[in-house]
Design a protein that fits this description.
The chain contains twelve helices and eight strands. With 258 residues, the chain is α/β, with parallel strands linked by helices. The radius of gyration is 17 Å and the shape is globular. The chain binds 2-phosphoglycolic acid.
Length: 258
């Protein structure tokens, strides 16, 4: 089964709107030769930069994503953002349940599930993040934790909707630390996630769902990670904040995609 590579830059709480615009303007020519049939390239700026970046990526092969979505259509939810607000700007992808949201802002599998269902109902392409903490891995609990996040986060999702989801496996101990899971270690975990997806949605859907790796992925290690059977791209933090490092990462990843 060949799945199209997807590389998404998660800019987190970095870049003002002006800085975000310069970054994407610098990125455009560097990835202009990447065929859209070979890879999806996504950038996910902060909310205040979405409009400027939406404008800048028009007509290019770079797609727009954001970092959160609320499940309600509107109302008293200070600090949150609705589907209609994101849609109006032209957002296509939505990161849901990033480990920083889970660790610092009380995101749970239940809230991830609610955000996911709204994103799907509103026609977005969700990027659902899962991943174990260092203590989980050291305690031999990685699979148990991932199974729980998958079962809770994807509860009640239909087969047809599951096919629209991208999963991001991000071991929390590898995020922003420079410690990457080895390709073999990451592949083993991706295969476990794939088996959950196949069991839950059937192989005809499970085999089509793209699973990104995230956690200190950079130009230097992208090729060997994406060469693994079940690693279909990456969710990139630090290395997405510079145009040249992100473009190099995209190209290395595609070069070695299965
Ligand atoms: P990193 O972040 O590439 O800086 O480790 C990845 C992420 O958190 O999505």
């Amino acid at each position: 089964m060949s799945r199209k590579v997807i590389i998404a830059g998660n800019w987190k709480m970095n870049k003002t709107a002006a800085e975000a615009k310069s970054l994407v303007e610098a990125l455009k020519p560097l990835v202009a030769d990447v065929c859209p049939n070979k890879a999806d390239i996504v950038v996910c700026p902060t909310f205040t930069s979405l409009a400027a970046v939406a404008d800048a990526v028009k007509g290019s092969n770079i797609k727009l994503g954001c970092q959160n979505i609320h499940w309600a259509a509107s109302g008293a939810f200070t600090g949150e953002i609705s589907a209609a607000m994101l849609k109006e700007i032209g957002v296509e992808y939505v990161i849901i349940g990033h480990s920083e949201r889970r660790q610092y802002f009380g995101e749970t599998d239940e809230s991830v599930n609610k955000r996911l269902k709204t994103a799907l109902a509103e026609g977005f392409k969700p990027i659902v993040c899962i991943g174990e903490m260092l203590a989980d891995r050291e305690g031999g609990k990685t699979e148990q934790v991932l199974e729980q996040q998958l079962a809770g986060g994807l509860a009640g999702v239909t087969k047809a909707d599951a096919a629209k989801i991208v999963l991001a496996y991000e071991p929390v101990w590898a995020i922003g630390t420079g410690k990457t899971a080895t390709p073999a270690m990451a592949q083993e975990t991706h295969a476990f996630i794939r088996s959950f997806l196949n069991r839950t949605f059937g192989t005809e859907v499970g085999e089509t769902i793209r699973i990104q790796y995230g956690g200190s992925m950079k130009a230097e290690n992208a090729a060997e990670l994406v060469a693994e059977k079940d690693i279909d791209g990456g969710l990139i933090g630090g290395a997405a904040l510079k145009a040249d490092s992100f473009a190099a990462l995209v190209k290395n990843a595609i070069g070695n995609a299965l």
